[in-house]
């Protein structure tokens, strides 16, 4: 309605004055509704797809591959690296595209499906070895829990993303999914092993995967389900007397802010100390504290030493079922 | 600190991926220098490309350097970092020395957003050595056997002497003096 009314006088003016091309200064009252309309139209449409970095004019895949190897401080074979970042779906996609165009299928591309398995094995072997020698007193269940955390898809994909693998991945999906990235990282380890030997691949795993342990609390990665029973069975295996829980201190009994400090004593010797809002909880916390002391994973433990060149092939740590401090001491002496 | 800083992102200085503990990874992955081949405001940039760019690329093999000429537009350098951040620096009307300084700044950065307000210039994962404080930290173990209420704890601490006490003390002193003085006299006489 308004548009019609406003259109009329304009017509009238134009008829009156035959030379109307005069630049008009003043408030641009059309600007706001125009921008509003454009914004509304944009909102109604689907979100714009993120552009691939490789579709930009400043992109040279060969240079990118070269710089990638140099950035990691590795002397990589570029063909092997290219295979490591090529997914199976990408190769199949290429074949389909060539078929659709009608070209005779001539694709000499390898994909990384084999390298993923190889890399995964290298990562698993080295991380187990590293963790066993870094935490010789930690039960095997704990070692496996820490290893599972370090080599999980989320962790490896974050590593791959922050090393710049995402831009290089040859894959039809965009943005690149976490599974593809984590597979790419595994294949990258295999590529390093193929180009410069298994030792370099192990050092790569140490420098990038194992260092993620810095600032992490091992006891948060592995939770003991029944600390009281576990502690008493360990004491039994060591031939010690059962522990005796005693209240060391308490405040605010019969209030909502009650706090008890319970100590566990074996033969009048304190083995663990814990606080809690009830005596039961405090006893459990004290048992966890005693276990931490036994497994050498206390909060005040020395930081993990990452400056290790080569590791001996270690055997599995003791499982929870047959863990005892006598056994562990014996094992540590024999390995030295 | 002005009020506009309250809306800034804030954080602590952190190395990406524990960089440097295992090995050092340069964080600048890509750099594009955009310039014009003819206009005067790109003069410093052109000189940089002619005389210093090759050395820069040799010193930083982990960085891919692109050079992008475009007509009659101001020169700038675009840096892409491993964490996905992009930094732009305008090189408009800069001399060769200025251009070199700004471009050499890029590989030294970690890619942290430039608008991040640092809450502190340091960071530690374990801020306390003694551990979490509890009401029992550094508590006298003798208190375990105490029976409450205790008279000792009901007393006021750091009391200064009252005037009455001072007078009483002086009176006591005087009394002692007086009691000893006659004895001395007797012994002398």
TrEMBL record, chain A:
Gene Ontology terms describing biological process: mitochondrial translational elongation; regulation of gene expression; RNA processing
GO terms assigned for molecular function: double-stranded RNA binding; ribonuclease III activity
Compartment(s) where it occurs, according to its Swiss-Prot or TrEMBL record: Mitochondrion
Domain called RNase III: residue spans: 65-197
Family annotation (Gene3D superfamilies): 3.30.160.20, Ribonuclease III domain
Cross-referenced PROSITE patterns: DS_RBD, RNASE_3_2
Major localization listed first in the record, in broad terms: mitochondrion
Keyword annotations: Mitochondrion, Ribonucleoprotein, Ribosomal protein, RNA-binding, Transit peptide
A Pfam family assignment: DSRM_MRPL44
GO cellular component terms, A-Z: microprocessor complex; mitochondrial large ribosomal subunit
Occurrences of domain DRBM (ranges): 226-296
Record-linked InterPro entries: dsRBD_dom, Ribosomal_mL44_DSRM_metazoa, RM44_endonuclase, RNase_III_dom, RNase_III_sf
PANTHER family with a match to the protein in the record: LARGE RIBOSOMAL SUBUNIT PROTEIN ML44, RIBONUCLEASE III
Family to which the UniProt record says this protein belongs: Belongs to the ribonuclease III family. Mitochondrion-specific ribosomal protein mL44 subfamily.
UniProt name for this protein: Large ribosomal subunit protein mL44
UniProtKB/TrEMBL annotation, chain B:
Keyword NAD in annotation: no
InterPro entries given in the database record: Ribosomal_mL43 (IPR039927), Ribosomal_mL43/mS25/NADH_DH (IPR007741), Thioredoxin-like_sf (IPR036249)
Domain Ribosomal protein/NADH dehydrogenase: 37-110
The keyword Transcription appears for this protein: no
Keywords in alphabetical order: Mitochondrion, Ribonucleoprotein, Ribosomal protein
An individual GO BP term: mitochondrial translation
Top-rank taxon, per record: Eukaryota
Locations listed in the record: Mitochondrion
GO MF, one annotated term: structural constituent of ribosome
GO cellular component, one term: mitochondrial large ribosomal subunit
Family indicated by similarity: Belongs to the mitochondrion-specific ribosomal protein mL43 family.
Entry protein name: Large ribosomal subunit protein mL43
Native species: Laodelphax striatellus
């Amino acid at each position: 309605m308004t548009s019609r009314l406003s259109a009329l006088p304009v017509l009238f003016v134009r008829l009156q004055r035959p030379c109307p091309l005069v630049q008009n200064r003043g408030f641009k009252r059309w600007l706001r509704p125009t921008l509003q309309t454009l914004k509304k139209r944009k909102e109604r449409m689907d979100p714009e797809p993120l552009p691939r970095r490789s579709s930009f004019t400043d992109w040279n895949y060969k240079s990118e591959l070269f710089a990638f190897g140099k950035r990691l401080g590795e002397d990589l074979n570029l063909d092997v690296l290219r295979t490591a970042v090529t997914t199976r779906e990408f190769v199949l996609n290429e074949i389909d595209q060539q078929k659709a165009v009608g070209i005779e299928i001539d694709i000499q591309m390898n994909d990384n499906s084999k390298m993923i398995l190889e890399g995964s094995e290298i990562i698993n072997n080295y991380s187990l070895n590293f963790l066993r020698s870094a935490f010789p007193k930690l039960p095997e269940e704990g070692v496996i829990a820490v290893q599972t955390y370090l080599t999980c898809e989320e962790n490896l994909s974050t590593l791959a993303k922050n090393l710049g693998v995402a831009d290089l991945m040859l894959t039809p999906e965009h943005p690149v999914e976490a599974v593809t990235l984590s597979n790419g990282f595994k294949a990258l380890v295999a590529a390093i092993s193929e180009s410069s030997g298994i030792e370099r691949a192990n050092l790569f795993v140490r420098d990038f995967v194992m260092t993620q342990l810095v600032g992490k609390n091992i006891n948060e990665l592995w939770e003991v389900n029944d600390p009281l029973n576990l502690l008493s069975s360990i004491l039994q295996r060591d031939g010690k007397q059962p522990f005796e829980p005693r209240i060391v201190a308490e405040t605010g009994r019969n209030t909502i802010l009650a706090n008890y400090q319970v100590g566990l004593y074996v033969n009048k010797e304190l083995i663990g100390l814990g606080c809690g809002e009830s005596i039961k909880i405090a006893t459990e916390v004290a048992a966890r504290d005693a276990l931490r002391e036994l497994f050498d994973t206390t909060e005040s433990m020395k930081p993990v030493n990452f400056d290790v060149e080569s590791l001996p092939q270690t055997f599995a740590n003791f499982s929870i079922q047959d863990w005892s401090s006598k056994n562990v001491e014996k094992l540590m002496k024999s390995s030295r | 600190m002005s009020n506009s800083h309250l809306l800034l992102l804030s954080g602590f200085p952190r190395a990406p991926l524990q960089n440097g503990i295992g090995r050092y990874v340069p964080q600048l992955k890509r750099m594009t220098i955009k310039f014009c081949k003819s206009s005067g405001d790109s003069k410093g940039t052109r000189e940089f490309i002619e005389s210093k760019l090759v050395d820069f690329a040799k010193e930083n093999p982990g960085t891919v350097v692109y050079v992008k000429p475009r007509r009659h537009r101001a020169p700038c350098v675009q840096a892409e970092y491993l964490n996905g951040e992009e930094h732009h620096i305008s090189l408009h009307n800069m001399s060769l020395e200025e251009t070199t300084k700004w471009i050499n700044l890029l590989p030294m950065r970690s890619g942290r957003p430039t608008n991040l307000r640092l809450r502190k210039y340091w960071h530690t994962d374990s801020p306390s050595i003694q551990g979490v404080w509890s009401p029992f930290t550094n508590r006298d173990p003798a208190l375990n056997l105490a029976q409450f209420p205790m008279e000792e704890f009901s007393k006021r601490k750091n009391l200064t002497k009252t005037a009455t006490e001072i007078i009483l003390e002086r009176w006591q002193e005087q009394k002692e003096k007086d009691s000893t003085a006659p004895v001395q006299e007797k012994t002398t006489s």
